[in-house]
Amino acid sequence: MTSAGQQADESRGAFSLDTTARRAVRQGFDAFLEAWETQIGDDFPLPAFSPAMAGDYRVRTRAARVRDVAIVHAHSESAMRTADTPHGVEDRVRMYVVRRGSWTLGGSRDHGEQTVSAGQFLLRHVGRSTPFETVPHTAAMVTVLPAPPLVPLLGNRMVTGAADAAEVRLLVAHAKMVNTTVNDLGPAGVRAAHSTLIELTKAVAGGRFDDAEPLLAPALAQAAKDLAQRRLADPELSPAMLARELHVSVRTLHRAFAAVGESVAAYIRHRRLEEARLALSSPSNGVSITELAAHWQFADGSHLTRAFKARYGLTPTEYARSTDPAGRHPRS
């Protein structure tokens, strides 16, 4: 028999919901409330939202719960706003990471009104829920965490800074992984995912993370992959550049990738080859092999051709012909 304590220890849930389609808007808010109730639960009560928001809820939402941590990714087309009603006691730590738009938090006993702008994060302990408001087209991640392990680091202060800070990148990368895998995790995986969320939030609060902690290796590797994806065409992209931007040593970065079964250089090369393959698959492709090689930072067309054939079993020209019924092929 599973005890109540064990059940709480292993509790998890997740949902993904898109209410931006015209036909989904009318029932969108009710669908969100139902998904939250069934997958996230009463331990994370929602505030009272404004009637205007309930009537025009155009938001893409991904949410996950791992024990006593909840993660919400929201991409809103409409504005979001809570109602002007009293909020209950909430002894929690909240972190806001805003990529686009802005998220404004109402004033409280300890803090005045605070706006988290695009490219910024805010981490703080809250003793009572506060109202919030966003502008349309806001993209943000909100994480709700237990107070006891974090308040000793935070006290009454707010920690703010750039969303591209190394520690924040690691937390966001891990949160994304949790969001997509939580329902498939076993008990040990749930505990590891939860512990890593807490440790990475501590790193944000303290401005550094323990790069020798093995639990953090997958998050570091994912953060490096996210950064590499944005810089694939950059001639400066390298393990050293990624390590520098994530504030770790190259050795630590290599160790993190080894833990997930590949090398940093191999990941970059494979992603560049995949982008070249996608370009060759495009019906409107008019680019030459030499141009592809230059764009994706291969030494020359011959180098790209050898790497492409080793990866996909065909040369770029052969691959383009196999995907083009008209028989067109790229220039060399």
From TrEMBL:
Record Pfam families: HTH_18 (PF12833)
Domain HTH araC/xylS-type: 222-322
Highest taxon listed in the record's lineage: Bacteria
Keyword Transcription regulation recorded: yes
Keywords, alphabetical: DNA-binding, Transcription, Transcription regulation
InterPro entries: Homeodomain-like_sf, HTH_AraC, HTH_AraC-typ_CS, PchR_regulatory_protein
PANTHER family to which the protein is assigned, alphabetical: REGULATORY PROTEIN PCHR
Name listed for the protein in its UniProt record: Helix-turn-helix domain-containing protein
Organism this protein belongs to: Streptomyces asiaticus subsp. ignotus
